[in-house]
Amino acid sequence: MNFLRHHKLDVIGVLETKLVEATLPKIMRTWFAGWKYTCNFHTHPNGRILVLWNPATVILEELDISPQVIHCAITCKVSSVSLLASFIYGYHTVGSKKPLWDNLISFGENCSLPWIAIGDFNNVLNANEKCNGKDVTSHELKHFEECCVLTGLTDLRSMGCHFTWTNNEVWCKLDRAMVNKHWFDQGLDGMANFLPSGCLSGHSPCIVSLLDVIANTNRPFRFFNMLVNMPIGSMPFKYLGIPLAAEKLKAVHYASLVEKIAVYLNGASVWDWTPAKGDSPLLKRIFEIRDIIVSKEGTTELAIANLDRWFAGENSGCSKAYEYFRPRGIPKVWANEVWRHYIPPKHSFILWLGIKGRLQTKDRLHYMDIDQNCALCGTAPETLDHLFFQCNMTNQVWLQIKKWLCITRAMTTIKSALKYMKKKKLVGLLGNHVPRKAQMACTCISYLTARNKRLFEGAVVTSDGITRKIKTHVYKIMFSSYPHVLVQYEHFALGH
Ligand SMILES: [Zn+2]
Where is the Endonuclease/exonuclease/phosphatase domain (predicted)? Predict the structure, then answer.
């Protein structure tokens, strides 16, 4: 009640009241003596929309009542301004909201007066009106966008919270105050103020002031739209206008900071401006970054073109900027051959260790008192190159694998083998390059497994056995990537 008194409201829309109609007269007597009300409670059990007004200051006539909207005609007794107002509380799903859009479109068709549609549309109008949570789909936006085009409704000037609803994980702009063309044609001014959510519900209360907003005196009337019975949440915190809780900041989140800087520069070009000694460290840092881009690109024009490129697509700027400044190592030629989406991570990891020379072959375990000879053939010291390329046993495997994959070149190290796989236009196996590319990872892991089995379990391993393992690995990869050629590959992978 303090809230109502403080904001001097003349017309109030309350959404999702969860009240029943029978209790309203008592509530009115207790809290709103002399006020009148209308509601759409008979259309929905939860008491969805309640409109209250003070007949001393406004004349309100209800025009149409439906589950998601109440249309009214309002005349202000003080200023004699007449307008139409629609109090909206949209259902949650795309399909169930369709009647609301249709209703607004048909109402807008015959509307020649200033019209304000205010409330919880339960729908964002732009992908950037949601922070965290699932991405907004074009399907969700379509009907609302169409409705705005057909009715000519646009957002009334607003201040306060951009995101009007939160459950402390996701922030959305669900509530708005929208006006039509006649609103401006008739010279109506006004301002919607979205107060922080959490003072009454998870939604931001929206207060619309008409006419003399700036003078702050003699306000004829306002609307107030609040939602109750939502979980009480805290306001979304921002620093310099940037939401702190957003996991992924998008360029649009910085808009208010950019605006503030623009005001501070007072018309001066960002590209010529030099920060003064007393300017904030943040501002100085921003201009340092500007200078870095200019010096990297050579000229201001190229730097501007670069920024334009980053921000050409929607929401893509931040990641491109991040990539631009991120320090990078020199790309390894083999990286793409090792980290392929179709190679199981375990296989990739073993191959990567092999390339780095980090597999625990016996030559790297010389501090242990163990037989240094190869576990597979027992005739030479076990080094990585021996195990993979020089060992009699694995040589036999290589012969079979090379024949199988039509590889003619001799393999001597993992790196050169990978380089070869990369260079060659590898077709031949049913026109597919995957088996050859995948086989290195499969071969590495199969050699290592065979060697460990022999070493630790004393198992008998044969070159045929290892070959079969490699073929099965490749076959599995092929099956997961190309299930439709399964039959040919089954014969191919398991046959000899
Ligand atoms: Zn050996």
Answer: 2-186
Q: What is the pTM of this model?
A: 0.45
Q: Are both 345 and 213 inside the same structural domain?
A: no
Query: What's the CA gap between 402 and 231, in Å, rounded?
Result: 66
Q: Closest by alpha carbon to 377, among 359, 395, 361, 363? A: 395
Q: Is the pLDDT of residue 456 over 50?
A: yes
- Of residues 20 and 178, more confidence is placed in 178
User: In CATH, what number is assigned to the domain containing residue 149?
Assistant: 3.60.10.10
Q: What is the pLDDT of residues 169-205, one digit of tens each?
A: 788 888 888 998 888 888 777 888 887 766 556 677 7
Q: How many angstroms is it from 372 CA to the middle of ligand 1?
A: 11
Inside any domain, residue 233? no
- Centroid of ligand 1 to alpha carbon of 398 (angstroms): 13
- 163 contacts 175 by C-beta, under 8 angstroms: no
pLDDT in tens, 460-477: 889 999 998 888 888 888
Residue 406 lies in a domain: yes
Question: What total of structural domains would you count in the chain?
Answer: 3
The domain in which residue 52 lies consists of 2-227
Find residue 227's DSSP bridge partners.
Answer: 15
Q: Do 357 and 469 have their domain in common?
A: yes
Among 291, 325, 359, the domain-final residue is 325
Question: 350 CA to middle of ligand 1, Å?
Answer: 19
Q: Tell me, what amino acid is at 325?
A: F
Q: Is residue 338 within 8 Å of 351, Cβ to Cβ?
A: yes
Query: What's the 380 CA to ligand 1 centre distance in angstroms?
Result: 6
DSSP states along 71-122: EEEEEETTT--EEEEEEEE--SSHHHHHHHHHHHHHHHHT--S-EEEEEE-S
Question: Encoding tokens for residue 85?
Answer: 């107002």
Which DSSP helix (H) or strand (E) runs through 51?
strand 49-53
How far apart are the two ends of the chain, measured CA to CA in Å? 85
361 has pLDDT over 80: yes
Whether 164 contacts 230, CB under 8 Å: no
Instruction: Give residue 396 CA to ligand 1 midpoint distance, Å.
Output: 11
Instruction: Say how many Å lie between the CA of residue 388 and the centre of ligand 1.
Output: 8
Integer Cα distance of 490 and 30 in angstroms? 81
| Predicted local confidence at residue 472, as pLDDT | 85
Distances (CA, A) of 178 to 85, 116, 152: 10, 6, 9
Distance from the alpha carbon of residue 477 to the mean position of ligand 1, in angstroms:
28
